[in-house]
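Write out the bound-state structure for beta-D-fructofuranose.
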Amino acid sequence: MSISNEIIIKANQHVKTHQSLVGSDPYRLHYHLMPTVGLLNDPNGFVYYKGQYHVFYQWNPFVTAHGPKFWGHYVSTDLVHWKEVPPAIAPGDWYDRNGCYSGSAAVLGDTLYLFYTGNVKDEQGNRESYQCLAVSEDGIHFEKKGPIIHVPEGYTEHFRDPKVFLNNGKWYMVLGAQTIEEQGVAVLYSSPDLQEWSFQGILAGSGYHGLGDLGYMWECPDLVELDGTDILLVCPQGMDPNGFEYQNMFQSGYIAGKMDYKEGKFNHGPFVEMDRGFDFYAPQTMEDPNGRRILFGWMGNAIESDIQQPTTKFNWIHALTLPRELEWKKGKLLQRPVEELKLLRGEETRYLNVNLKDNQQLSFNGQVFEMKMAIDRMEGETLTIQIGESKLIYHQREGVFTFQRKSYYLSDQESRHCYLKDLKKIHLFKDTSSIEIFLNDGEEVFTSRVFDDIETDEIVVHTSGSVAMNLLKWDLHRVTSY
Ligand code: FRU
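---
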């Protein structure tokens, strides 16, 4: 038996042993993808293959901390109901001994190709990175083919997260990298056949082409085209907070412009943060058969190793975001929950033509729900929506939107903010321990885990000033069974 198979058997046993403890956690989510046990981080290999969506994820089954990652694996026909299938790849070979790190998938003919980073560390903690290939003919069983790309000269061993895509009949790969000058960059490779890869150069990077200091390492790049604009999604490490921006440990954002694939050059604008919440990182997209560009993100971020989330007591941590459709509109990247999520809807409650006057409030209940609010008119100071122990606050005069949650490691509230000129629409999804807030059709998004007192289910809409609005709320079904 190969090492990888042995470790998969060990992981399966681990899942069985811990299933009932994990399952007893009231914070288990009802409609988000989570690990059956252990730690989940980045979404990987998001693809549509032989009639099914596949999403893989970075998985450390054995502890709720980072370590040698597997690729866990879920499949679905509708992006809402997911089935867990055996892990696709596991660490253990000389080129991925310390982890099958993040990567992507591509379909050629009948074959599904997975590209990932083999992470290797010696006793002194020195790192080696190999870009590796694994293939499958059924989307369930994968055969590792070993390294296909070695780190080129001029770069450190922080060289990872291959994202492969097709453009005009030619295959490309973007990778996150660190130059020997310790600048974070995204680099481009091309290939005629997915096997032979040639280095094309730097697409964008910290200190390159007018970008300021954008950190010492870039992770998880993805290059997509939306409505004629090329958009590089990327996750810089090592950026300092700036006003309301870059508040998390690591950042996630995009750089828009125009790609010249012949020259391998990207003419682009500035870096723009993608999500204003506490828990968003390493998003990955795919184009589905209907031509939609769909994104999954990790609903988490790096946290200091001594900080424990409440779920770690139950031997699991982190989840993926909801799938979101991307749109490029008026020079902005919009993110909206996919249509299919309507399948989750249960009982509907409507509050139509509501006119809240100064200090009046509207209250109702819900713990796992979707809510849509359309604001017709707002005059005055603030609109506040309290959801359990969290608050959404819009200060109209300053044009600032705030999300506030109860911290799970400080005995206090903590906030994230963004500027927003004119608040017209709020669309949000609340799960047992998460909230995703989409403002003005996805112009701004706040993604966060929330760990409220489990009995709390009060929702209160309150205004100082006045507000005229329509509000719809749906209780949402549970679709996770693990
Ligand atoms: C991003 C990341 C990737 C890496 C993976 C390891 O969260 O650090 O760069 O491939 O996680 O799990």
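---
The CA atoms of residues 194 and 277 lie 36 Å apart.
The helical segments are 3-23.
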